[in-house]
Design a protein that fits this description.
Helix content is 44%, strand content 12%. It is α/β, with parallel strands linked by helices. The strands form 2 sheets. Strands 3-2-1-4 form a 4-stranded parallel sheet, sandwiched between helices. A 3-stranded mixed sheet has the order 5-6-7. The longest helix is centred in the N-terminal third of the chain and has 16 residues, at 3-18.
Length: 277
């Protein structure tokens, strides 16, 4: 990646944002939405609003970190509660689950007196377009825009620019929602999400944080993913790990020998296997 090219795209992003009269950024505290929100704040000033959806699928540490980051960069952030857990289509946890989550976010924005009639902007970059992300389509159908995509920015360019702009999340690992840890077909419940959050927090206390996932394969069975170069370390500490996950509520604890990879639950889709019933 040529840095000058990234700078040219940043200029395009600034121009795009200046032409949007009443933007509201869907904010998560991740690097994509952070770059979008910070640049939008620079370009449109007081006209900008940002919103973060607070639900059971958002870890508390992520919510706290996002609020702190918004404050550091003077991004006006609204925390709105979403109720996707009341949607039986979302709870059923099919491969289209994310679409109902994005619908819930749009509904929360539309219902908010200070946010309705604004254009919702989401931190989607061009590298996200090739993955299985039905939430993108749902948001776009409801009128959301993806300015990073419009400017042609990919994930590596986003991180590079965020670092230059001293945005604290520039090197933050990807952090999908807790529901993404549940195997398709396993019902999404507040209890299941809390169990996953407790398990990942427990692994973090043991020193396994960042690119680490606890995948729920059916309530009692956990599948741990860590980077490949930490597999041996985790195995040597298996007693502590097993105790930690059983303390979080899992009965069976397994280690995925392929190591961490984002979106691994989507293999049932990409390999064409039948989803769990």
């Amino acid at each position: 990646m040529a840095l000058s090219t990234a700078h040219e795209k940043l200029g395009d992003l600034r121009s795009i944002l200046r032409r949007i009269p009443d933007p509201v950024v869907g904010f998560s505290g991740g690097v994509d939405s952070s770059l979008l929100a910070v640049v939008a704040r620079q370009e449109v000033g007081e006209r900008l609003r940002a919103v973060i959806a607070d639900s059971a699928s958002l870890p508390r540490r992520e919510l706290d970190a996002a609020i702190a980051l918004a404050r550091r960069h003077d991004v006006p952030l609204e925390v709105v509660a979403t109720d996707e857990l009341h949607d039986p289509r979302y709870r059923a946890n099919g491969s289209d689950r994310c679409a109902y989550c994005k619908d819930a976010l749009v509904e929360a924005v539309v219902a908010h007196p200070d946010l309705q009639d604004r254009t919702l902007l989401l931190g989607v970059n061009v590298d996200d377009l090739g993955d299985h992300r039905p939430g993108q389509g749902a948001a776009k159908r409801r009128g959301a825009r993806f300015p990073l995509v419009e400017a042609g920015l990919g994930k590596h360019e986003v991180r590079s620019l965020a670092r230059e702009l001293a945005i604290g999340s520039w090197d933050k690992p990807a952090a999908a929602c807790l529901a993404s840890r549940l195997a398709y077909g396993v019902e999404v419940t507040a209890e299941a999400l809390a169990r996953i959050e407790r398990a990942e927090e427990a692994l973090g206390e043991l020193g396994f944080a960042g690119d680490v996932r606890v995948r729920d394969q059916g309530g009692e069975l956990a599948r741990i993913e860590v980077p490949a170069d930490r597999l041996e370390e985790l195995v040597t500490r298996r007693t502590e790990v097993v105790d930690a996950l059983r303390g979080a509520g899992f009965r069976y604890v397994t280690l995925d020998l392929e190591g961490f990879r984002s979106g691994s639950q989507n293999l049932v889709i990409t390999l064409g296997r039948k989803q769990p019933s």
